[in-house]
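Notes taken during the Thursday session

The instructor put the following on the board and asked us to keep it in front of us for the whole hour. The protein is Squalene monooxygenase. We were told not to look anything up and to reason only from what is written here. First, the residues (481 in total):
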Amino acid sequence: MDECVTSIGMPCDGYVVVDEGGRQIELPYAEGEAGYSFHFGDLVYNLRRHVWNECRTAVTMLEATVTEVLVERVAPCVDRAYGVAYVMRNGANVPELPFADVSTARTESVDAGADVYCVATAPLIVMCDGGSSKFKALHQHYTPAANYHSHFVGLIVRNARLPLERHGTVFFGKNGPILSYRLDPNELRFLVDYNKAALPSLEEQSRWLTDEIAPCLPADMRPEFIKAAQTVLNIRSMPIACYPAAFPSIMGYVGIGDHANQRHPLTGGGMTCAFNDALLLAAKLSAIGDLRATNVATMSKIQGKLQEAIISYARARVAHSASINILSWALYDVFCAPLLRNACLDYFLRGGEAVSVPMALLSGLDSRPQQLLWHYALVMLRGAQSLVTRGGRYGNRDKADSFTSNRVNTAKFRVAPSHIYEVFQLLFSAVLVAVPVSYNEFVSLWRLVDPTGFLAFIFKTARVASYRLSARGVNGKPVGL
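Then, after some discussion, the predicted structure tokens were revealed:
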């Protein structure tokens, strides 16, 4: 399936961070590894075409909208999904050869008549409809955020060059990071952090991009960026919410990708987690064999094995996705706080494992949480040391620290309350960043208790009722309860 990505994607060899003064810090992936950036719609099209071409006899393709997950009560306070209800336009059939060429890839736009309501049944419902799915609140142990954390304002800029091609690039705006990466030989995507819960109008966003964001970019990129930002139809936005990973609350139902858990898009880890989820779930299901049987007793055994596989998958995926998720939120907060940012960049300049391990974690090649914890602690402790000695390569613009200056600055630190306060602020801020996101990822009752059982049903019913008494329940983000 590699060609689904490589045929449309632009190869990416790592990241580069560009600070306010234009200084570049390169963060390469491990040798021989590469990422890809692409138009998401092209990837979805390629994946569908691959499945159709390789698994046509086992796949039914429909163009429809799912309106309901069908659920039945199988025991007191225990529910199971057994299918979906969906609606499609009458007569809007998929072409016989939907992926033969561009002209036949889409159904012709005709007056197809009234909608047709249909039902499809299956012992397993796999949901991959994104982070704003209405079903995630209905059929998962889902805790909504009180409000959106922030927004990414997106823009496609043409005829511009990155400071270092084949690298995702992070610039620093006045109040948050700016991410840019190449989509094709002529297009760059910019994702600009707007760190407020509500967005202004498109006209105000356009002025904000032109007046406040463009000056933060390299001079050679500004004209094309401003040109794109002045056309409001070019501007897109994506709300970002922070909430814990969700476990399925009914049997026969499982979510992959953003449906199960989201992360900050700054690090671009969404598709990495989604593909890993798909591979992990497939591995868990492969041991079952046939998922249908005509014999009732055999079918009951299959459903039991399915449920074991779902719960095993839901618990196992945390190990891989947690490091990517925590790192995405932590890097966002670090890049927004000058003290933390300077400590992080100073650590990256050490090279070696100070770059290779964080990049392996970010890309999903290394999913060990202990590695993330260790290097995060090193970043902040090294940062505190640099504040004490007034050393560090980033703060001193690559000048080597001398033994004498370190000792003199350490002596001054002991009698300088402002310096002591900076160290305390750095370490305290580091804890405030890491603890909440780590708690969200790792602490869950459903890692120990069956999330679809009797007690889980009672727990969810009471919890949803209590949340609905507050605005957070009804108006929670990305979807309410």
